[in-house]
Amino acid sequence: MTVTINNIDANKSYYLSSDGSIKEAGFGQKFKCFFNIGNARSKVSNLVLVVKHNLLLSANLVRDENLDNKLQTLDLKSNLKGSDIQEVIKDFKSVNGEKLNKSKAKRITNNLVSKTIESLVKDGKVDSRATMALENFLLNSLNSMSKKTLPMKQSGKNQSFDENKFSAEIKSKLFETINLIKHVALNKVAGGKLSNFYIDYMGSRLYDSEGNRTAFKVNELKDLEAAKKEYICSKLKSAQIDVNSEKTQKAVELLINKTKDNHALTDLAIYNSFACLINGQNQLRSLEQIEENIEGIKSNFREFDAVGDELHGMRKTGLRLMNFLEGKNYFPEGYITNLINMAKHVGLTPFRNLNAKSSIADLHKAMFNLNNAMSEAMLKAGSDEDFKNIQNDRNHFMATKDLFQTAVLLRLSPNERENVKKGLENINFAKLQAIYSAYHNDKTLFSSLNRNESKLAATLIDDLSDSSSIFTRNLATLYGKESLNILEYEEQIEYDEDSFGVIESDLTNKAKEYASQRINEFVNSHFSGNLAEPVKTLVKNKLMSDTYSNLGNDEYAGDIAFNKAVNKEVSVMMNWNILSGAKQLNNGDFADAVCYKDINRLINVSLPDNKKLTNNFETACDEIARFVLSDDSVEYKKLDKESFNKTNLVLSMLSQETSKALSGGISVALDLDGKEDTLVLFGDRDKSIKSFEYSLEKSEGNIILKLDSNISAPNIYVKGEQLQCDHNKTHFHETLTYSISEQELSRLAKVDLSEFDDTEMKHAFDGRENYRGENQKNKMSKIDNLIRPEFKVASSTKVSISGVIEK
After folding, report:
1. Strands (E), 110-249
2. Full DSSP string of 394-445
């Protein structure tokens, strides 16, 4: 007979075995426990955790101080006595009787709701994809009953919860709701099946948030097609969107019309219409963005249908994940197919070897191999840009892991999945998670790694732990459960070779290998030619060093690492460039401003709506003022002071000083020792060709400057060494994306720039006065320190560089 906390013998003592089951303590376990040999007492401590977990779960409690205090008094030297367990349970039930009854009532309710859902789906009244919405609807319809006192009955001298009477009341209420649903399905959706959005629409009209019936009559519900528009508009109103405006009406019609040919797509888009139509700033997306999103989701549906022909269960997985992404995100075209194809080649042996008695090393091997394969697949299933976009959205990142893991799990037989389940419910799995946590918290464990590599190793641990949690949820989903019975482990982790040796080695080696691999991929893809090696080495050395903070870069992508490595220096130079230029313009010193000269010299600036900035400074000022203020009627000379200052801040970006800030910032940032300029590009006037393309745009409350710079450079200096290059074959491409919020622009416009000491900074830049002989690194640091807090421009800066260097 299986031992549980409810059938233990008061006269025996117990411990928790490695497979997570409760065992009676024999002589060997008793002896080891009394003298604290090996992990014998840990097995007892973990049984205490199981008792605590089961009791709290039974009463839907997060914590109970009385229980904690009681458990702390238990004597663990002689294993856990059955009499002690019974006393703890009795005391817990006495203190938490009402909560236990409510927990029982909740389980009864959930069970009856589940049966109701199953019945309605089987009868064809509700779409099988709408079970979650139906569950919410049914539970809300019963919500008013949860406020009532639970029915009780007399049991001897005591009263106990009358489960039969409570069940009858719930069944009666559900019977009414079932008839209502059947009536609506017959009369409002033409005998069809109720979908997610229609169930949500119906629920919001017929019941309030407390589960009480509203005055709204069933026959007042709109039919399926008419309800779509009303439902979407009700969602948009919550964001204070004018639903009667022409723009909103077009957006709603577009969403409805573009999704009407696919029932599953229709339901997904309408149910998640808020996310489909509204961006992160609570603003309506453009029609182009909405259409692009819909087409992306359509493409995903087609891919899930195609892969579902070969891998049973992927269509259902696809629909689940698309709903999880809420219609605001989708996988790039081809990404799903590529990811699943890579999942087909993951070795299943480590999983097939798992069982109820799996060791920590076996569990780690399975999780580590899976995570490595998954990381590699996520990188290679699409472009670098695809991966960055997925990585930058938490839900999208989780959905991608979910997809890959589910594809792996579906390749296992039901018996193999059962063994994996037993392995994850093993106490050793709980201990493995505790080891990962210990590694994350103890920074001294990665002494052989530099700062960025050490952080990468810690990130790998987070990723392993996170991926393991997703894996357990995926497995539970395949079993039709909310979760698996994952145990806890709270004992102190001993740093022994058996527990940590293979894990520490795996994490250390992987961190070094991964960082090196990604950086090599970056330099090899960005620099080519028979003279490229010195430049590659220069960039690689910087990215492999800890002279910059790459701590926020979870996946160590080369382009992100490079941007972080040069970001500060470029930002400091842009800060000086913008404010010094704006200071001149604010003072009326137009002729001395670099932007005045460059705009008149035919600088190429693109504006929104395919417009080009006029190469006449006076006219250009009007055009920039209209762009900044979003008002086509304004004139630069007639602006109020704040608007004038805001316009000048943007004008000051439009000069060759911006390209110098870009190239100069990169050069200084790549310098590891501060002795000289590390990467200098120049040439003879008749051989060096430079072209600069500027553009200005607005997006979600930000003004964004983009610079695209192409340089043909016959003379290149790398750390003072000249490379003799063929100017017909050698060229560099640098880009800058510099974003300032309109709120920050308004703040800067109110700051008195006459207090901005750009003269002292210019001396620092040029190495004059007190800055003679200073190396570039020190000069940049001093310039940064000279910029007072009120003059620090809060901006987002993205930088890239690539080049071909040939003899």
Report:
1. 152-155, 158-161
2. HHHHHHHHHHHHHHHHTTS-HHHHHHHHHHHTSHHHHHHHHHHHHHHH-GGG
Query: Over the stretch 409-439, which tens digit does the pLDDT of each residue have?
Result: 999 999 999 999 999 988 889 888 888 888 7
Sign of CA dihedral 546, 552, 558, 562: negative
Nearest to 408 by CA among 417, 395, 399: 417
Closest by alpha carbon to 337, among 310, 357, 356? 310
What digits encode the pLDDT tens for the residues 748-794?
A: 999 999 888 887 777 776 767 666 666 667 777 777 887 889 999 99
Residues ≥6 apart with Cβ < 8 Å to 285 = 251, 276, 277, 278, 279, 293
Which pLDDT band holds residue 686 (cuts at 50, 70, 90)? very low
Q: Torsion angle, CA of 540/541/547/548, rounded to 10 degrees?
A: 0
- Contact between residue 64 and residue 106 where contact means Cβ atoms under 8 Å apart: no
DSSP annotation of 72: H
- Rounded to whole angstroms, the Cα distance separating 337 from 651 reads 47
- Give the residue ranges of DSSP H helices in 259-358: 263-271, 273-277, 287-308, 314-324, 335-343, 349-352
Report yes or no: 738 and 650 within 8 Å, Cβ to Cβ: no
Q: What residues does 738 pair with on adjacent strands? A: 705, 797
Compute CA 793 distance to the chain's CA centroid, rounded to the nearest angstrom.
27
Residue 160 neighbours by CB distance under 10 Å: 12
8-state DSSP, 690 = E
For 211: left if phi > 0, alpha if psi spans -120 to 50, otherwise beta; the answer is left
In eight-state DSSP terms, residue 476 is H
What is the token pair recorded at 203?
A: 């629920």
Distance CA 213, CA 209 (A): 10
Residue type, 607: L
Compute the distance between CA of residue 235 and CA of residue 233 in angstroms, rounded to an integer. 5
Mean pLDDT score of the chain: 87
**Rounded Cα–Cα distance for residues 549 and 644 (Å):** 37
Give percent helix, percent strand, percent coil of the chain, each to the nearest 5. 60, 10, 30
Tokens of 173: 């209420």
H-assigned helices in 587-734: 594-600, 617-629, 641-651, 656-669
Strand partners, 736: 707, 799
**Nearest to 46, CA basis, from 496, 492, 491:** 491
The rounded distance, in Å, linking the Cα atoms of 534 and 717 is 10
Distance of CA 401 to the CA centre of its chain: 11
pLDDT tens for each residue of 226-261 = 999 999 999 999 888 999 999 999 999 999 999 988
Look at residue 682 and give its three-state secondary structure.
strand
**700 contacts 280 by C-beta, under 8 angstroms:** yes
Q: For residue 735, what are the CA distances in angstroms to 131, 359, 649, 732, 803? A: 49, 51, 20, 10, 12
d(CA 181, CA 162): 29
Whole-angstrom distance, CA of residue 434 vs CA of residue 264: 42
Beta strands in 114-200 (DSSP E): 152-155, 158-161
